[in-house]
Every structure is written in C-alpha cells, then in structure tokens.
Amino acid sequence: MKIGVLSIQGGVSEHIHHIEALGHEAIKVKNVYDIKCIDGLILPGGESTAISKILRDTGLENLIKDRINDGMPVWGTCAGMILLAKEIENEDKAHLAVMDIKVRRNAYGSQVDSFSKDEVIEEVSDKAIPLVFIRAPYITGIGEGVRVVHKVDGNVVAVIQKKMLATSFHPELTKNLEFHKYFINMCMKL
C-alpha cells in the first residue's frame, strides 16, 4: 500500500515512521503529482486555515476533494479533522467540506490545556491506546451516515463516514501503531 501524508505542517515524519513501521510505503504529498499515486491520505495536524490556503495555492484542494469523493480513504487528525468537516463552529467557511460533521476548534482550550489519556477503543484495539490532545477540536454535530467511533468525557473525538476517518487526537505522537493499522486496513478494503 502507498499511504500519502499531506506534507505541509504537523506530525508528517511521525506519520511516515508509523506507516513504514507497519511495512507500507509512505509518500510525502506536496503537489498534484503526489496525490495521484496513493491508496489513502493522512491529513495531519497543524493550523487548518494555513493548510487550507496552501492547498488552494498549490492546486491540491480540488484534487484531494475529488479523490475523496471518488472513494479514496482519508484520515484527518486534529487540524485534519477540521479540514474534512462540512461545518466549523463560529466560521462562515469550511475547508475541504467532505465529511458531514460540525467541529469546534481548540475545544479543550489553548496549548497549556493539552492532555493525554489512555482509553480502550474497541473497534481499533482491545488494549488501551494513548490519546494525545493538543489544542484539539471535537465534534459538536453529526450528519447522516457518520458513525461515532469514540467519545472522551462525553465529547465525540473519533468518527467514520464512508472511507473517511477523523480523530481529534494525535496517534502519530505515540509509539502505538493501532490507529495506523486501522486506517491502513480501511485502505486495503478498496
């Protein structure tokens, strides 16, 4: 499998390390040529507004949207979740707007409010997985066809819709590979 990692901001090298540790090829997606040869795409954290502007400026925005709408699996972590969302609280415009969710930016507070928690997510692993939240969003609205995968303290932090996965947290910032295995399995079911 060739798994792309959008290489603009965020934990790009960490996602690449996890993909390669699982025996798959990781592709740094930086331009329109890179997006054409991958089986799935990870949208890592960072600053969603800046990432979105770069996607528009490079011509990647519409190509990524088209690939997702054609069934390419995608996983957005933190800012990646915001990029996927059709609606962002207190904002007029969404970014890629392909996933029927409403998100709240920095829902847990600022950088100093970041935290980590170990939780069992049965769909992903029967053992506790470390969940790292850094200026994390969470989901405040879910449309038809969106399935909740996990909640933390009553807040929706992981969802699936078709071949789209979104998480508020950063599995790439831990040594645990379970979420990357889970996403790669989604990619293999094409």
From TrEMBL:
GO molecular function: glutaminase activity; pyridoxal 5'-phosphate synthase (glutamine hydrolysing) activity
Active-site residues, as the UniProt record annotates them: 78 (nucleophile), 170 (charge relay system), 172 (charge relay system)
Gene Ontology biological process terms, A to Z: L-glutamine catabolic process; pyridoxal phosphate biosynthetic process; pyridoxine metabolic process
One GO term describing the cellular component: glutaminase complex
InterPro entries according to UniProt: Class_I_gatase-like, PdxT/SNO, PdxT/SNO_CS
Organism expressing this protein natively: Clostridium acidisoli DSM 12555
Subunit organization: In the presence of PdxS, forms a dodecamer of heterodimers. Only shows activity in the heterodimer.
Record-listed E.C. numbers: 4.3.3.6, 3.5.1.2
NCBIfam families: PLP_synth_Pdx2 (TIGR03800)
Pathways involved: Cofactor biosynthesis; pyridoxal 5'-phosphate biosynthesis
Known function: Catalyzes the hydrolysis of glutamine to glutamate and ammonia as part of the biosynthesis of pyridoxal 5'-phosphate. The resulting ammonia molecule is channeled to the active site of PdxS.
Residue sites binding L-glutamine per the record: 46-48, 105, 134-135
Keywords noted in UniProt: Glutamine amidotransferase, Hydrolase, Lyase, Pyridoxal phosphate
Transmembrane segments: none
Catalytic activity: aldehydo-D-ribose 5-phosphate + D-glyceraldehyde 3-phosphate + L-glutamine = pyridoxal 5'-phosphate + L-glutamate + phosphate + 3 H2O + H(+); L-glutamine + H2O = L-glutamate + NH4(+)
Family, similarity comment: Belongs to the glutaminase PdxT/SNO family.
Name the record gives this protein: Pyridoxal 5'-phosphate synthase subunit PdxT
